Amino acid sequence: MKIFDKILKSFTILILILMYLPIATMIFFSFNSTKSLVRFTGFSFRWYSALFQNRIVWGALYNSITVAVVVTLVSIVLALLMANAIVRYEYRGESIIDAFIYIPIVIPEITESLAILILYIFLGFPRGFWGVVLGHATFGATFAVVVLRARIAGLKKSVEEAARTLGADEIQTFFRITLPILMPGVIAAALLVFTLSFDDFIKTTFTRGPGFNTLPLIIYDSAKRGGVSPEINALSTFSFGISLLFSAVRLFTLRRGRYE
Amino acid sequence: MTVAVELINVSKRFGDVIANDDVSLTIEKNEFFSLLGPSGCGKTTTLRCIAGLEEPDSGIIKLSGKVVTNVPTHKRNVGLVFQDLALFSHMNVFDNIAFGLKMKKVSKEEIEKRVKEMLELVGLPGLEKRRIHQLSGGQRQRVALCRSLVPEPDVLLLDEPLGALDLKIRRRMTVELRRIQKEVGKTFIYVTHDQTEAIVMSDRIAIMQKGKIKQIGESREIYSHPKDSFIASFIGEAVNIIEGVYGESGAFVGKKLEEPITVEVREELLNMPVVLSIRPERIRVARKLRDLDNILNAKINSVLFKGMYHEYEVETNNDVMIKVFAPNIGPTTAFQVHDTVQIGWNKEDVVIIPVS
User: Fold this and answer.
1) Choosing among B78, B83, B85, B88, which should be mutated to test the A contact, i.e. which has the most A CBs within 10 A?
2) What number does CATH give the domain A50-259?
3) Do the interacting molecules here have an ipTM over 0.95?
4) Which of A151, A157, A161, A165 to mutate against chain B (most B CBs within 10 Å)?
5) pLDDT tens-digit map of A112-124
6) What is the pTM of this model?
7) Where are the domains of chain A?
8) Cα B232–B233–B238 angle (5° rounding)?
């Protein structure tokens, strides 16, 4: 059994190495002093300083963050309403609605993106900031529902009823009792949605207007134009860092939420 | 006495299930009133209707003389201690207890003073800063009680709040609850399926079965004069029920008994089918008995030693099994299986219940 344990452990480590080796390489060469992606010639922040002087990068970063923030807010509000409806009320066709909510997770993103684009054209809905936000919110709300419904299902009805007997009306009960208890779930869902939106490429490509860039788009554009340069490495590393930060906060809050 | 809570013909159904069937109750101010019944009898629904958490299909609910049937929960000024306690896990003890006062916009100093007093009343001084998950079951119970009591509700409803505790703490808490109720001088309505709890604590008890109130009265009265055989067997540790007919004046003719049993005279029951109910502790057992209204020859069929008393099952000459609790007053009084004995009781020890 000991040998078996060791083999399992080695496999796990091997898989982790395979997963993170490319990222590690990218991060490593983003600190290279020359353009080479083969030979490391010395440590430098040169590509990062170039990056932060680039106005296009700043504009894209601003877009990425504002889109992600608005998408997160819209998704969380929608998801709170949907998850409540799914968990607490019984109605006809509940299982069908339940299934439809999860479809955005399983269908290929490109199919969904194309569908949204066609709808926008059909409705004459302008592409650009709000087009991207609505596109992202379709999957954002879905993922948020998955996270929130477990939390809501674990919320005892009696806790809210207790608040009511203590003189709290429905709105006070929601903001003082329900929402604070759901908060670890809300934060986890928000960070997940933020990360997904921040990293999204396909849907943004389909729903953005001319001249509207986000970080993933300019990374792709410059890679396509000039091959892979250390500047892109630096940009990707930066973008990766933001995502990593949010994932870490999410894991941390989830772990804390377990003790509540 | 003023009336604290009044229910007039309250009915409530959930789909096909009738939870409350024409329930009428009058509960007086400062009374400790228990709703007692087996699970699913509708006692919790009655409580939730009083709190406004359920809306009755028909009937009227009055609190302190005012009709509140359509008043929302948060405007009724009732406290409710839930079965699962329903403490706010994201708040500490102080914030849990202070919640109701904050909703009433009581000043900060006043809140701090009253929370402190309340914690002292239940024997948990200085626990304000504790988190809920750091408390023991008994402590949580007390915090839940404090939280519902501190806003000074007109009536406090308790929905089997002791259910999750182990037996020892439970028994202690029943005494404690009664003390607190006397101290704060409030109307308590207590829902339970545990008849011991109800008997110990209550001024009056209402027995519920299948959504209906079967009997209302003081513990002693219900225990010794149950209205039907369901109540007789539900209340108390055990009861002996013998079927028969009420014969000529003052005689009960058991279906399987050779000789009639002398009972109190109740002419209105003449020749009616009745049951005779007698508590095991009211039956005396000895080798030879004298000076009792009824004495039967019997044989010990089984013996259970219960510490404080012996639980005998005795068999009369006609195979009627009767349970007898005999206090443990020394080893010489104990009987063995197959011993020949006599059992006996006076006519006021039994209750004759007409069979409906």
Assistant:
1) B88
2) 1.10.3720.10
3) no
4) A165
5) 999 999 999 999 8
6) 0.79
7) 50-259
8) 110
